[in-house]
């Protein structure tokens, strides 16, 4: 569910997304053009291709990785990306062949705003819950890294929303500065500090807390905390991390 949108310069957003490309990765095609203040793909992508355009695709389809799967945004179009693209295509009524071409890209364009965020989530929903904006992150982390992480989080939340029948979800917390995290009693190593986590509650009576938790098992969040876990009875906490930690006992998780 959106609040008033804060716009970020398209060049900054593009730079943040491209910063996810691993160092040393060889780009095998001309850099893609930018249109509509966001991103445009210039070639069909399939298993075996690599480059910054694959990275951009992965950011947007990671939430379709499948049940109990993580997802690496690494610029390499491997089997996991093929599966995610195929699931994305099936979810939106496209030919589910796992190849990202014009129909797949057109659907993604329809789902993204000019600042590259998904249409149902905004920067103003994921910035610092205490102070607004993006106060100085914890030592060793930059604002650019925080925003690049949040873009990934928002696109996975968009996939979750669609899986829930496109019923609205309300963000109660995402990025937290160190001071904000201290004020709200967050864990000292919380993924919120790095922009890698989001807390959600139903945005309408059509969705339940456990409904969110159960659907979240399919959208590549390896951290999932909810009802029945201490201090998580009133929201679903979802985080991007390498190791799986799911706890929502009241929902059977």
Automatic annotation (TrEMBL):
SUPFAM superfamilies: Hedgehog/DD-peptidase, PGBD-like
Domain of life: Bacteria
Family matches, as Gene3D superfamilies: 3.30.1380.10, PGBD-like superfamily/PGBD
Start and end residues of each Peptidoglycan binding-like domain: 50-107
Domain Peptidase M15A C-terminal: 147-238
Keywords: Carboxypeptidase, Hydrolase, Protease, Signal
Pfam families reported in the protein's UniProt record: Peptidase_M15_3 (PF08291), PG_binding_1 (PF01471)
EC number: 3.4.17.14
UniProt signal peptide: 1-35
InterPro entries, per database record: Peptidase_M15A_C (IPR013230), Peptidoglycan-bd-like (IPR002477), PGBD-like_sf (IPR036365), PGBDSf (IPR036366), Zn_M74/Hedgehog-like (IPR009045)
Molecular-function annotations in GO: zinc D-Ala-D-Ala carboxypeptidase activity
Name the UniProt record assigns to this protein: Peptidase M15
Biological source species: Nocardioides aromaticivorans
């Amino acid at each position: 569910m959106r609040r008033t949108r804060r716009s970020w310069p398209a060049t900054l957003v593009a730079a943040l997304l491209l910063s996810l490309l691993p160092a040393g990765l060889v780009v095998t095609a001309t850099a893609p053009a930018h249109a509509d203040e966001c991103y445009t793909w210039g070639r069909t992508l399939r298993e075996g291709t690599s480059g910054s355009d694959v990275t951009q695709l992965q950011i947007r389809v990671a939430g379709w990785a499948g049940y109990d799967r993580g997802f690496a945004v690494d610029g390499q179009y491997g089997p996991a990306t093929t599966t995610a693209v195929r699931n994305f295509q099936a979810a939106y009524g496209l030919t589910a062949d796992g190849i990202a071409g014009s129909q797949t890209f057109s659907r993604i364009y329809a789902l993204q705003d000019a600042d590259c965020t998904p249409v149902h989530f905004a920067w103003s929903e994921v910035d610092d819950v205490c102070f607004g904006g993006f106060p100085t992150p914890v030592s060793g982390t930059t604002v650019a890294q925080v925003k690049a992480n949040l873009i990934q989080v928002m696109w996975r939340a968009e996939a979750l929303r669609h899986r829930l029948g496109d019923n609205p979800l309300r963000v109660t917390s995402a990025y937290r500065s160190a001071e904000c995290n201290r004020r709200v009693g967050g864990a000292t190593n919380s993924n919120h500090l790095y922009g890698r986590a989001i807390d959600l509650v139903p945005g309408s009576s059509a969705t339940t807390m456990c409904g969110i938790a159960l659907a979240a098992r399919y959208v590549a969040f390896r951290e999932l905390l909810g009802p029945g876990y201490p201090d998580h009875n009133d929201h679903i906490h979802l985080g991007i991390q390498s190791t799986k930690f799911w706890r929502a006992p009241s929902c059977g998780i």
